[in-house]
Amino acid sequence: MSKKLTISTIKKSKGVRPLVMITAYDALFAKLLEPSADMILVGDSLNMSFAGRSDTISTTLEQMLYHTNAVCMGAKNSFVICDMPFGTYTCKERALDNAIKVFQNTQADCVKIEGGADKAEIIKHLTDNGIAVCGHIGLLPQSVRSEGGYKVKGKTANEREQLLRDAKAVECAGAFCMVIEGTKADVAKEIAQSVSIPVIGIGAGAEVDGQVLVFSDMLGLFEEFTPKFVKKYLDGATLVKNALKEYADEVVSRKFPKEEHTY
User: Which residues are annotated as active site (predicted)?
Assistant: First the structure.
């Protein structure tokens, strides 16, 4: 993007142009992603992509601060969102203390919190105290253990009604946008139409206000598994492996370094 988005311009984009969000965890990739991304999410998914864990739950605030600072250094012209990790917003006082740490120690533009109506009081407490919040409803990765796995939402009438309540509650609490994950497309569409703030989908169909993907998934770098909702735009892992093999072969055969690589 040629000009960094603001909360105001993000909200005004609803119904005008879909928003492009992607994750990043370091300055190198953040700089590469910046020209195409409206918003960069420093997701707690880094615990899986970077740390090799099976879920996001053990992510620490210290990790998030480190990676958010790196992303902000690499993408100074992007709107940067910092995920609040599991356990850092169990009550409104704890949430505010930790969100203040994010704002004081990074250049993040907002924090993201998982949960709907059950987290509305916390979101309102943050927004009332100058903390910009992106909500997150639907499938909640931080709840994977309590729910017994990653389960698509919106399959029943009760789930649909709860998601609508969640979206309204997050909006009323002052969030300027929200992510909706792992939700039936027709339900996600209805939710996007029911609120005045942008709804960014991940595994939630095309009829929302934007999309977000984990960069290592969409670039084909993460090989363990590929969620159904991910489109691989690059076979990154194969390209990297081939390049490394070529390098190794040239080292062993003394083809590298050549004269032009030598002082």
Answer: 181
